[in-house]
């Protein structure tokens, strides 16, 4: 969907994950989640009561950001755009799935990565999620409730 006044931005009605397919998005009053168990706070679960569900396409960032997909969407090539420079992720605790589907993009482009850290399992907090994916030698992460990970070297 193209929106007037939003130059260079195109909205795609899809979810991002580790593998392409179809998933059920469970809507809530104040939050959404692809995985029913990823919302653990009692208040959020209460807000989900009566919420609607919707089947949506799931795409991998690595697939969407390849030249063939960009051409099909009518978007400029990544080379013309200067590559992928920034990825922001806020998916209510399933950040790992998004990053698994973006592994080649992270390795090739080394974008800055910003994501919500507070809903992740303890072992993945504090930048550990990114370090597990690409190694501590590639990124430096600064985290509180959110993580901002900076590539040590841009490609």
- Order of helical and strand elements: EEEHEHHHEHHEHEE
Q: How far do the termini sit from each other? A: 31 Å
Number of strand elements: 8
Instruction: State the share of residues found in helices, binned by percent.
Output: 25-40%
Please compute the radius of gyration using only Cα atoms.
Answer: 16 Å
Strand content: 15-25%
Instruction: Identify the strand order in the major beta sheet.
Output: 1-4-2-3
Describe this structure in words.
With 155 residues, the chain is an alpha/beta fold. Helix content is 27%, strand content 25%. It has seven helices and eight strands; from the N terminus they run βββαβαααβααβαββ. The protein is globular and about 35 Å long. The model has no long low-confidence stretch (mean pLDDT 79).
Keywords:
7 helices; single chain; 4-stranded mixed beta sheet; 155 residues; alpha/beta
Summarize the structure.
27% of the residues lie in helices and 25% in strands.
Task: Set out the fold topology.
Elements: E1 15-16, E2 21-27, E3 32-33, H1 42-48, E4 53-59, H2 61-64, H3 67-73, H4 78-81, E5 86-89, H5 95-100, H6 103-109, E6 112-116, H7 128-134, E7 139-143, E8 146-151
Parallel strand pairs: 1-4, 5-6
Antiparallel strand pairs: 2-3, 2-4, 6-8, 7-8
